[in-house]
Specification:
Length: 285
């Protein structure tokens, strides 16, 4: 990681006061989604409390990303209902921001212009845009890198820029699709520590997809396990580890190993619908 990022992490104790939030409650009821290859999601229902950090784990192809896209209004629901803050999801909303695995930055725009984009789309004034961009870049540790292009950034810095862009419009809900999967292990832990700090500061509702059980336990208030063929929720596990957290504290917690084994045992269960004709995963992830 660049020295700037390390200095930012080390100074994480100087955190501003928590930000007041709107209603980030997510309600999904009896969701179904079909792709040409078959059923991707089958009768999925869940509630994410406002301000909760929910982690979703499951094998590739079980519909995790599809479920996130439905929450974001980026895909149509074939059957069932989805609401955010009590409002039905019928398309993208400024209340909801998404952070993707592969950063999603426009390579021809500087860091500043990438981060400012959602504010410009919302027709925020120039002074407000400058203020918010400056604030979120400082929050994620990218002050001083405003004029750089994505090609000039490390993987960790690119993901920080993507996170800053998502935070710029002050959303109530942050949806994160394996955001740290494309960086090295050391950078991943630094970003996890940063997200723990930001979560306590910003208090958004966060839904976080990961293949890592360790990451889910470190970050989440609750873990949802999904299985495929077709995609459905099989179990949920509360993470009863007090906040604020650090990675080291989580690993030393007496309940850590037992919870990890329970989640892993659930993931090892064979799909209940395996061998059923007409079901498939399509392009789900």
């Amino acid at each position: 990681m660049p020295n700037n990022s390390r200095r930012h992490t080390a100074s994480s104790s100087t955190v501003t006061a928590p930000v007041a939030r709107g209603d980030g409650r997510i309600e999904a009821r009896n969701l179904y989604k079909w792709f040409p290859g078959g059923i991707v999601l089958e009768d999925v229902s869940l509630t994410v409390r406002s301000g909760e950090f929910l982690c979703i784990v499951g094998p590739s192809g079980c519909g995790k990303t599809t479920l996130l896209r439905l929450m974001a209004g980026l895909a149509e629901i074939d059957h069932g209902t989805m609401s955010v803050g009590g409002i039905p999801v019928i398309g993208p909303s400024p209340k909801v921001a998404v952070v993707f695995q592969h950063f999603g930055l426009f390579p021809w725009k500087t860091v500043h212009r990438n981060v400012a984009l959602p504010l410009q789309l919302a027709r925020a004034g120039g002074a407000e845009t400058e203020r918010r961009v400056s604030e979120v870049l400082e929050t994620v540790g990218l002050t001083g890198h405003e004029s750089k292009y994505p090609a000039q950034l490390s993987g960790g810095m690119k993901q920080r820029a993507g996170l800053a862009r998502a935070l710029a419009a002050s959303p109530d809900v942050l949806l994160m699709d394996e955001p740290f999967a494309a960086v090295d292990a050391q950078t991943r832990e630094v970003l996890q520590e940063d997200l723990l700090r930001l979560r306590d500061q910003l208090r958004q509702t966060i839904v976080f997809i990961t293949h890592s059980i360790d990451e889910a336990i470190t970050l989440g208030d609750r873990i949802i396990v999904m299985a495929g063929r077709p995609g459905r929720i099989t179990r949920e596990f509360p993470v009863e580890i007090d906040r604020p957290r650090t990675i080291a504290q989580v690993r030393r917690h007496p309940g850590y190993e037992g919870l990890r084994e329970q989640v892993w045992a659930e993931l090892r269960q064979p799909p209940a619908g395996s061998g059923r004709s007409g079901s498939g995963t399509g392009d789900a992830a």
